[in-house]
Amino acid sequence: MKQEGAWVLEQTTQCRKWSNDKKVWISSYLEEQTKHGGQAYGAYIYDRLVGFAAYGAPKMIDEIKWINLTMLFVDEDYKRRGIGTLLFDKIITSAKEKGVEKIFVSAIPSKETIAFYFSQGCVDAKTAIEEFVDTQQDRYIEYTV
Fold first, then answer.
1. Enclosing H/E stretch for 142
2. Are strands 6-7 and 2-3 parallel, antiparallel or unpaired?
3. Residue 50 DSSP class
4. Tens digit of pLDDT for each residue in 102-135?
5. How many CA atoms lie less than 13 Å away from 14 in the CB half-sphere?
6. pTM of the shown model
7. Which of 69, 78, 83, 97 is deepest in the core (most CB within 10 A)?
C-alpha cells in the first residue's frame, strides 16, 4: 500500500486458492482475451498446467503501444523453478513481435509478487492506466520492451 508517497508492506489476507467456479471463469476470460487480439500461454509439466500468463489486445495510449498483462500465475507447488520467468519472457517476445513498447501490470501488492516483477526488470509505473487497473489497492508496474 502507498502511504505518504512511499510503498510499504502490509499484512494481507488475500486468498490464493481458487474455487472451481473461479477456475472456469479464468478459462473463459483467457479465451475471450485471445479472441479479441490478446494472447495466453500455459506452462505444463507433463500433462499438468502449472502456470499461465495472458495479456489483452495492444492499445495506443498517448502515442505509446501498450499491452496489459492481465494474468501471470504459477501454482504454489511449482514456484521458484523459473516458470514465472519463462512465462514473462514469452509475454515480452510476443509483445516485441506486435510492436508493443510498454507492458502494464496491475499487481497484487505482495512482497513476493512485487519482488518477482522487479527481478524481471519492471519498475513502478509512471502513471496508472485506468482501463488496465484491476483494483485501487494494486501496485502499478510497467516494463519497457
1. strand 139-144
2. antiparallel
3. E
4. 999 999 888 899 999 999 999 999 999 999 999 8
5. 13
6. 0.85
7. 69
Contact (Cβ atoms closer than 8 angstroms) between residue 145 and residue 103: yes
Note whether 69 and 105 are within 8 A (CB). yes
Taking residues 58-74, report their average pLDDT.
95
Instruction: With CA atoms as reference, report the closest residue to 52 among 21, 31, 36.
Output: 31
Report d(CA 51, CA 72) in Å as an integer: 7
- Which strand (E) or helix (H) includes residue 42? strand 39-45
CA distance 67 to 102: 7
Mapped onto helix, strand or coil, the DSSP state of residue 98 is coil
Q: Does domain 38-144 have CATH number 3.30.360.10?
A: no
Residues 103/67, Cβ–Cβ less than 8 Å:
yes
Query: Domain ranges in the chain?
Result: 38-144
Sign of CA dihedral 26, 31, 32, 37: positive
